[in-house]
Amino acid sequence: MDRSRILNAALAYCALLFWLCSCSQARVFRGYHYKINIENIIDDELHVELTFKGKLPDTSYFCLPRIVPGVYDALDYGKFVKNLSAIDKKGHHLKVARIDKNCWKIIGTKNLATIQYTTNDGWDAFDFKGIRPYRSSESHFDSSAVIINPNSIFGYFAKQENLPFKINVKKPGHLYGATSLTKNRSLKNEDEYFAESYRALADNPILYAPADTATIRLPGILITVACYSNSKQKIAQKLAEHIAPLVQNQAEYLGGKVATDKYSFIFYHNTNLEDSKYFADGLEHNRSTLLLMYAPMDIAILKDNIYNLASHEFFHTQMPLGLHSYETANFDFSNPKFSKHLWLYEGMTEYFTMHMPVKQKMQTVEQFIHVMEKKIASMKKFKDNVSFTELSKNVMQMPDEYMNVYAKGALINLCLDIELMALSGGNYGVQHLVSDLMNKYGKDKPFNDDDLFGDIYTITGYREIKSFIEKYIEGTDELPIKQQLQKVGLHLNADSGKISAISNMSEAQTALRKHWIGQ
Hints:
Blueprint: H1 3-27, E1 31-37, E2 45-53, E3 59-63, E4 81-88, E5 95-98, E6 103-107, E7 112-120, E8 146-148, E9 156-157, E10 165-170, E11 176-178, E12 182-186, E13 190-195, H2 198-202, E14 206-209, E15 213-218, E16 221-229, H3 236-253, E17 262-271, E18 279-284, E19 288-295, H4 299-315, H5 317-322, H6 326-329, H7 342-359, H8 365-379, H9 388-393, H10 408-423, H11 430-440, H12 452-460, H13 463-472, H14 481-487, E20 490-492, E21 499-501, H15 507-517
């Protein structure tokens, strides 16, 4: 072989080596890579291992959340973690100091190789013992079923929450992982998940249990119902058949515009064998809902409860997934700043939940009236001098008032809906308003918290709406429920709280009610 051919062959070989090296480097995952093995849980403790690829200062702070979206109390998820150690690239242990319930100070993280720790679950058996809220935001470890709430297992480095996460879960072959989290691959004994940020990771619970799933296919969205019952009965298909007409009507009510193409209802049922009492604890997420339930193995009870929950939580695909402020989009897991628009996120969502069935003719007017009466009675249990925007911004300081977002919050939007309908001659209501706001913003474009009311004034064009917001959302004036219902031919007895139809409605009342509820 002559010298030139040898030189060309050498250059080609070097080019191949360079290409292989470049491809290898391109495949290096930059971010958080977690590994857990749910087949190896000892005394309710799970071993967690993190490999981090990215730039860190020499001193870093590793944290788990103090609070997560949808929860309005400091639950301190770092309390489940113990024996945290950090190891450098030479195998030496770095100096670690726990600075509070949720964060650790680590010195030498420029050379960090791995972090290891164990984490406990939040509850052993879902029942009446030690009953408390928000267990649905915690994890549960059992040989029959494992619930992974990522916020209670996986941590993040401060100021590095927006890096991607890869999660490898080793598992028994008979357990199936149900979640809306992106699944990179799935083998018999291992799954790999991906999340673009800690916000996305924490927003997606996972249920590992023997496969019991069903699907609901609607235009533009695939809905999964995944269940576990310690009765060992398969219940997903029956629940999905019950839920399907509901979510179909919800999608139609929203004009076919749903802010996600994938959604999961994840249902964990623990059987009450002693009596007929039951209760549930659920937490909504952008693309899923996790519901824990303690009840007899009575499919009618299970259907009724998941039906009621499914309606409200599925509407959360609109608010806050499709419409939210920067406070929500950039949620601070340690020291969150809350938006002042709970009247929208929870109040409007609950109003849609009560308004949709009558508008879609799934419910009679009499049934709808009964729902309104219950909301009015519930509202009266709370203080009547609390501004809804102030409650929203300071919700952690006013925990006793929070549940009013589902009563007065819904009624605020009922009154706003009738007001808009009356001003527009029945052509524009809160359904249109939410659609217009989503068109202006959307799931990838947050709004400034202080700008939303101005946007609503501009979109509607009615001075009366500015006055309505100032009086009843920002202010503390008594809601004009009686006057608003009068416009649609309904009479509210202020003393008894009962609502009745006006026998001789005017043409204007009849027409407006038709526009408002369709019957």
